[in-house]
Amino acid sequence: MKINKIKNLLIDFGGVLINLDRPTCIRNFRDLGLTNIENLIDPYRQQGLFMLLEKGLVTASEFRDELRKQSNKPITDIQIDTAWNSFLVDIPTFKLDLLLKLREKYVVYLVSNVNIIHWEWSCQNVFQYKSLHVNDYFEKIFLSFEMHCAKPEVEMFQKVIERTAIIPQETLFIDDAEANCETAQSLGINTYLAKTKENWGHLFE
């Protein structure tokens, strides 16, 4: 890949921008009586009920009600959301600054497997930087719960290409899941597999 031929950036959210804390999230759910969800919560792709929420196939209310049934405790919406949002930590400010800098030269898109509960928390808590809003960092935002599909499904990438009219060969996709990168590559998109907490800004130096 020659970076000087790249015009568009597709950037993942969890693990690439925002730091994650899966052990704390699982521990907090266990404290609510939910002891069987460890296999459902994944840094790359959720499973079961959590994937249904991630694809927008159940509402946040339906998600919470189902967890209440599984818990057999009168846990509140706030308790559930607090436990679920503990999966999210922060976006280092240097990455927010990097996004703003990249927008000066590239067309930057966010392409994320994310659910509505996490997204609302993130918009309120991690993008509020320099009096900016989440939309200030990206040309367009593609979220699995709004698109009703999720990476690494080819459908999600095809929808992004169709809705942006980007040329795959002029596009770089930055993600931390190998399966997602493989699907993008199959469509001709350049990819970079980011490591946990990596400062991938070196790609543009």
From TrEMBL:
The yes or no answer to whether the keyword Nuclease is present is no
> Gene3D superfamilies given for it?
HAD superfamily/HAD-like (3.40.50.1000), Putative phosphatase, domain 2 (1.10.150.240)
Q: Which GO terms describe its molecular function?
A: hydrolase activity
- Which CDD domains has this protein been placed in? HAD_sEH-N_like (cd02603)
EC class name: hydrolase
Q: Lineage in the entry?
A: unclassified sequences, metagenomes, organismal metagenomes
UniProt keywords (A-Z) are: Hydrolase
Show the InterPro entries listed in the entry: HAD-like_sf, HAD-SF_hydro_IA, HAD_sf, PGP-like_dom2
Reported EC number(s) for this entry are: 3.1.3.-
Protein name as it appears in the record = HAD family phosphatase
